[in-house]
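Hi W.,

Here's what went into the run:
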Amino acid sequence: MDYQEAKDKFISTWGSLGSLWGINKAMAQIQALLFISTKPLSMEEIMEDLKISRGNTSMNLRQLMDWGIVTKTLVAGERKEFFTTEKDVQELARIVAKERSRREIKPVIKVLEEVSSIENDGTEKTKELIKQTKALHELTETMDVMINKLVDQKQNWITKSVLKLFK
Amino acid sequence: MDYQEAKDKFISTWGSLGSLWGINKAMAQIQALLFISTKPLSMEEIMEDLKISRGNTSMNLRQLMDWGIVTKTLVAGERKEFFTTEKDVQELARIVAKERSRREIKPVIKVLEEVSSIENDGTEKTKELIKQTKALHELTETMDVMINKLVDQKQNWITKSVLKLFK
DNA sequence: ACAAACTTTCAATAATTACTGAAAGTTTAA
DNA sequence: TTAAACTTTCAGTAATTATTGAAAGTTTGT
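Here's what came out:
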């Protein structure tokens, strides 16, 4: 496998994996491209490399910036904008975890809270609804807390703290 | 908010959340319906309650069974099949985590392994590709190990072991 | 103030993914 | 063995989501 093959394989795998961490294909591919690039890339270069349109590139770069994963960089003497991504995988993981918690988990917790606190009219089905949504609420909240604690650890929590705990 | 409202809200929220744990809307809704039901439900009842077609119900029930989340139950004196879901949230979380690891994370780890072991021809870009995919490989593998360790704990790992660690 | 260089927006379109419903298949009771 | 009761399959269609490309918008140098 030569460089080009390896690069393509990485970008396409990472792209199709997008769904796992909650973003779309183009977004994941742009991030992947930047992640293995040795220098900031312009919109032009990204479009050409991934064979996607200008509009698509622009919109997905914006989203990546919203997530805080990609930043604009100025390159001396160049007028156009260049982009780079966070290169540290741990920091990347932290950003993604935090964003997903905020965007997806938190709203669910809110609904589970609401649903599980309806008035208990004593019927079987109401009791079951309350019981089960409460259990789900508790689980979801615990996982969310866990994710955010992990994410707040600034050092390599993953290799240090966690692994040894489950030895 | 009365029972029906609460029920609908729960099912639709859980349904749209499907993407978070990697399954589609109908599948998540069926699971949600069974999760708060006080008794096993037939295909007929599921179709009616969720207003989805017979075919859709059948296919999604099969998928839920493939995941190991839903099981067929025989109801005495009834000819048709009835379905129930795992009612314990912790066991549910365990099943989902294990399945996602197997279906999604493991294959990615394999690709990252391949890509990160291409021959180092000494060029800048090859070195960067190797370095970055290696870092990603390590991270992904560690998370996968972590998930599987968590998942193997048969007791309420979540409240006990984990929370206190990140106090 | 102008225009070149560049970026963003968004309506139209394409690609993907989910859903339906009827036909084919299977199981069970008599 | 038959037929009623039930389940599965799958081609066609609908719904959703992603992408394009050209027009509108913005910025910068002169």
